[in-house]
Amino acid sequence: MFFQRKETKLPQTEQKRETPDNLWIKCENCSEILYRKHIEKNYWICPNCNYHFRINSDLYLNYILDGGGFIEEYVYNLETKDFLNFPGYAEKLKELKEKTKLNDASRVGYGKIDNFDVIFFITDFRFLAGSMGAVLGEKFFYGVLKSIEKKIPYIALTSSGGGARMHEGIISLMQMAKTTLAVIELRKNSILYINILTDPTMGGVMASFAALGDILIAEPGALLGFAGPRVIEQTIKEKLPEGFQRSEFLLKKGQVDLVVPRNELKTTISKILRLLS
What we know:
By secondary structure, this protein is an alpha/beta fold. Helices cover 34% and strands 16% of the residues. It has two domains: 21-53, no CATH class; 54-276, 2-enoyl-CoA Hydratase, Chain A, domain 1 (Alpha-Beta Complex). It has nine helices and eight strands. The strands form two sheets. The protein has a six-stranded mixed beta sheet. A two-stranded antiparallel ribbon has the order 1-2. Strand 1 (24-26) and strand 2 (33-35) form a beta hairpin. It is globular, with a radius of gyration of 22 Å.
């Protein structure tokens, strides 16, 4: 005798529940397994070791500016072009524009911090590691001109792993001089310029406008410098001190003014603006 197979579906309450993707994440520093929603509420800071995860420009704008309000003007439409026909550059730019919804690694616009008017410039590591090209230099300079015109403080937040972008050759290197000259214009006009250095800020970005702020604020544990530690060790054939080029090391050497956790950035900048702007 053959028995007819009958499939029985469990009641809705008893059916197997699938675990949502990305519910848990691993800390890149201490390897602790963390509940994603808790990390998001904690400004993407590990509660176990204080490691600051890398975050995108949208999150920084929400954390620092009142209500996340950020007004980008016509420079928003400036797009990075492959004017040297560098192999694979055009394809990479197209891919990144679709993925990040950005036209370049930088953004600049008007915002408020505890009701203080500011011009805010920011780089986004997702777009070619926040590297510097012609568009970044143009946006930075435009922001400076607006800051001088409105007589309000200029604040820059940087994250860059590559500095000047080789895909644009000498044009990219020229942005180091262009942005440095822009900072000089801020000083001539007595405009307060604050830099927030996040992990990492390296290469041409750190060797130009990022290191020239009237006040330099760094996030904890951020890697800051021109060449990386491994390159330096291979060059000088010596072991570097522990924590070399990290925020806390540079604070002790007087190369940054403050090391401030991400969840205290807005409060700290507000105090500075209240005193100096």
